[in-house]
């Protein structure tokens, strides 16, 4: 009898809590845009185990290295400095190297939209002919050019971001586990969504951007088996304007928000500003940035109050580590892939909107690092 009474009382408590959770889930969308505390009515998975005290290691040793003899060539992708995303992250790595390694000579050049392959080759050829060494190509779009130019300059060291297809002794790939960081973005989106309805906006439908999409979808579904996900790209493969079209980003994000999504993650380069603007204008949505800590980017400062977090793709870490290793004369110390374990990807906490779920995100992060969770780089829809 006592057991029966206790069970009944417990069940009543559970029903009361369930009713409270349901009421919380019906709160106004304006609460979502404020950040606030997490609304876990969408979450169906148990909270992950607490993370160990330390789950990351830095690939930089922190030792003092003299890089004053390096003459760096930095070939930006479309957008260059000021894109508040991918290129700015690369620039930050070089700027840090100038400060900490004593590098004084840096020559920068930026790709223009829809430029020819010959223009990219000419840019790299000119840098190599000027004696710049090493030369860093920012983006997989440079792969054919690096493959063509590097053999002509065997004593010039090249690095290329986001491509590992070039098998030459003087070319170093700098690649990332974008899917791992995006998994955490998906978890954050679910925990912060009031509607249990989130979105993704990719810039160009390429295998690289599909890694962001794949991780985001998997992370969201790991946290909730009832979440609804909008999933769109701005342009198909081959049309790289999707990385620099804020107006199109705005339209796509606004459509997803109108469909009910209240947290939108973009992997769209400079087009992400349009996504942020759409979330801000709606007054009922949050957005997740990419590559850099976009909360702190001047070019999107007007939208910082709706930026929930950013998936940090630490191109700055990879570029700095490459320059440091090059200055030491030992490129073998670089990781084969910049992942969560070496702080190559991660999430930003600026703005404080994920402070209340940091333990959850770190718990999932620890499981990915340990191998308990395997994150796919192919979208499962």
Automatic annotation (TrEMBL):
<feature type="domain" description="ABC transporter substrate-binding protein PnrA-like">
    <location>
        <begin position="75"/>
        <end position="375"/>
    </location>
</feature>
<keyword id="KW-0472">Membrane</keyword>
<dbReference type="InterPro" id="IPR028082">
    <property type="entry name" value="Peripla_BP_I"/>
</dbReference>
<dbReference type="InterPro" id="IPR003760">
    <property type="entry name" value="PnrA-like"/>
</dbReference>
<keyword id="KW-1003">Cell membrane</keyword>
<feature type="compositionally biased region" description="Low complexity">
    <location>
        <begin position="23"/>
        <end position="45"/>
    </location>
</feature>
<dbReference type="GO" id="GO:0005886">
    <property type="term" value="C:plasma membrane"/>
</dbReference>
<feature type="region of interest" description="Disordered">
    <location>
        <begin position="104"/>
        <end position="125"/>
    </location>
</feature>
<keyword id="KW-0732">Signal</keyword>
<feature type="compositionally biased region" description="Low complexity">
    <location>
        <begin position="104"/>
        <end position="116"/>
    </location>
</feature>
<dbReference type="Pfam" id="PF02608">
    <property type="entry name" value="Bmp"/>
</dbReference>
<protein>
    <submittedName>
        <fullName>BMP family ABC transporter substrate-binding protein</fullName>
    </submittedName>
</protein>
<comment type="similarity">
    <text>Belongs to the BMP lipoprotein family.</text>
</comment>
<keyword id="KW-0449">Lipoprotein</keyword>
<dbReference type="InterPro" id="IPR050957">
    <property type="entry name" value="BMP_lipoprotein"/>
</dbReference>
<feature type="signal peptide">
    <location>
        <begin position="1"/>
        <end position="21"/>
    </location>
</feature>
<feature type="compositionally biased region" description="Low complexity">
    <location>
        <begin position="52"/>
        <end position="61"/>
    </location>
</feature>
<feature type="region of interest" description="Disordered">
    <location>
        <begin position="20"/>
        <end position="66"/>
    </location>
</feature>
């Amino acid at each position: 009898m006592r057991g029966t009474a206790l069970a009944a009382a417990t069940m009543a408590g559970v029903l009361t809590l369930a009713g409270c959770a349901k009421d919380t889930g019906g709160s106004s969308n304006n609460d979502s845009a404020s950040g606030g505390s997490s609304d876990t009515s969408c979450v169906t998975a148990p909270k992950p185990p607490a993370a160990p005290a330390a789950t990351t290691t830095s690939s930089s040793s922190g030792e003092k290295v003299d890089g004053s003899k390096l003459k760096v060539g930095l070939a930006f992708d479309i957008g260059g400095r000021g894109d508040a995303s991918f290129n700015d992250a690369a620039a930050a790595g070089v700027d840090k190297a100038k400060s900490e390694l004593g590098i004084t000579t840096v020559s920068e050049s930026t790709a223009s939209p829809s430029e020819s392959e010959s223009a990219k080759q000419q840019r790299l050829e000119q840098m190599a002919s000027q004696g710049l060494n090493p030369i860093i190509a920012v983006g997989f779009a440079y792969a054919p050019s690096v493959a063509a130019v590097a053999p002509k300059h065997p004593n010039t060291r090249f690095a290329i971001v986001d491509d590992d297809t070039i098998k030459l002794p003087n070319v170093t790939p700098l690649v990332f586990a974008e899917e791992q960081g995006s998994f955490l973005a998906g978890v954050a989106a679910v925990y912060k969504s009031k509607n249990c309805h989130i979105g993704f906006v990719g810039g160009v439908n390429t295998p690289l951007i599909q890694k962001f999409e794949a991780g985001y979808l998997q992370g969201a579904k790991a946290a909730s088996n009832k979440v609804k996900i909008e999933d769109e790209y701005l342009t198909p493969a081959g049309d790289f304007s999707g990385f620099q079209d804020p107006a199109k980003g705005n339209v796509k994000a606004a459509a997803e928000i109108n469909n009910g999504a209240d947290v939108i993650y973009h992997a769209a380069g400079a087009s992400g500003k349009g996504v942020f603007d759409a979330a801000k204008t709606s007054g009922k949505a949050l957005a997740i940035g990419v590559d850099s800590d976009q909360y702190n980017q001047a070019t999107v400062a007007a939208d910082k109050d709706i930026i929930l977090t950013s998936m940090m793709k630490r191109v700055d870490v990879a570029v700095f580590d490459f320059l440091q290793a090059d200055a030491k004369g030992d490129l073998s110390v670089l990781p084969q892939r910049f992942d969560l374990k070496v702080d190559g990807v991660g999430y930003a906490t600026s703005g404080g909107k994920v402070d209340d779920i940091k333990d959850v995100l770190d718990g999932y992060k620890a499981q990915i690092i340990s191998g308990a969770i395997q994150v796919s780089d192919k979208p499962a829809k």
